[in-house]
């Protein structure tokens, strides 16, 4: 991919505008159109990085990665107490959950899911994520998550996902306990006052947000900064008048790489 100049010529925005203004093409860019465009760009960049990573691990160059070929990152191998290692993120169970067809090898799609499980739609991987959450939160080691384990570990993640102004407020412990118990009871389908792996499935996307979550945050940020007439959408003129808001929210340059990097500001 070609590096985009940090001067961000106006012509770039003029060419880009109709690509974003696609649903419908009405001369305005909406939050949804920006989100979809961000998502498309992020997916391309993530796949590009996964392909480069696959080249490193595909020792026999057959286009697949076996578990024997895969080596965890050095920080995992050197620190057995690290979150990723302890949670099994680099272990065979994770590998097998990513192996959609069960042939013992990961093709590029499966390997991409392996590296980015929160963006996968694979039932096997989503279940594995739920299992890892139980493994981490289950302090009494009974194989499930009780209310205290849920309240002190998972509820704040769900709340942070649902409430945009979460970080700007600091509600009391008591004020949060009631909505936490309500959500817990909704998830506890069998009424045993414990959450199983399966019962965590409805909220796993909030515990591990997908790329769409970040794409929407980026779209909201751009509109909040560049929407001069406050109509909730952007015209080409508004984008031209605020070029660096648009640019800085999308790209960051890597001086050691000829490729653009998808901006990581909202992670």
From TrEMBL:
PROSITE patterns: EF_HAND_1, EF_HAND_2
Stretch forming the signal peptide: 1-22
SUPFAM superfamilies reported in the protein's UniProt record: EF-hand
One GO CC term, this protein: endoplasmic reticulum
SMART domains listed in its UniProt record: EFh
Cross-referenced Pfam families: EF-hand_5 (PF13202), EF-hand_7 (PF13499), EF-hand_8 (PF13833)
InterPro entries per UniProt: EF-hand-dom_pair (IPR011992), EF_Hand_1_Ca_BS (IPR018247), EF_hand_dom (IPR002048)
Domain of life: Eukaryota
Residue ranges of domain EF-hand in the record: 92-121, 138-160, 175-210, 214-249
MF annotations from Gene Ontology: calcium ion binding
Keyword set, alphabetical order: Calcium, Signal
Keyword Transmembrane attributed: no
This protein's record includes keyword Calcium: yes
Protein name, as recorded: EF-hand domain-containing protein
């Amino acid at each position: 991919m070609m590096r985009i100049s940090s001067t961000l010529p106006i012509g770039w925005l003029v060419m880009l505008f109709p690509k974003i203004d696609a649903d419908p093409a009405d001369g305005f860019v909406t939050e949804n159109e920006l989100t979809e465009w961000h998502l498309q760009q992020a997916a391309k960049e993530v796949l590009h990085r996964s392909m480069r990573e696959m080249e490193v691990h595909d020792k026999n160059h057959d286009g697949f990665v076996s578990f024997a070929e895969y080596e965890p990152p050095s920080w995992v191998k050197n620190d057995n107490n690290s979150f990723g290692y302890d949670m099994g993120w680099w272990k065979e169970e994770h590998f097998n959950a990513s192996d959609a067809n069960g042939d013992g090898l990961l093709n590029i799609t499966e390997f991409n899911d392996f590296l980015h499980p929160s963006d996968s739609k694979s039932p096997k991987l989503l279940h594995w994520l739920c299992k890892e959450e139980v493994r981490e939160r289950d302090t009494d080691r009974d194989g499930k998550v009780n209310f205290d384990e849920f309240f002190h570990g998972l509820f704040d993640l769900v709340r942070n996902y649902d409430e945009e102004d979460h970080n700007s407020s600091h509600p009391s412990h008591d004020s949060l306990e009631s909505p936490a118990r309500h959500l817990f009871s909704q998830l506890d389908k069998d009424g045993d006052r414990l959450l199983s792996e399966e019962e965590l499935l409805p909220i796993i996307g909030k515990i591990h947000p997908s790329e769409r979550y970040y794409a929407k945050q980026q779209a909201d940020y751009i509109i909040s900064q560049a929407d001069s007439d406050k109509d909730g959408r952007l015209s080409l003129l508004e984008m031209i008048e605020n070029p660096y808001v648009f640019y800085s929210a999308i790209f960051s340059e890597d001086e050691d790489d000829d490729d653009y990097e998808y901006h990581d500001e909202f992670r």
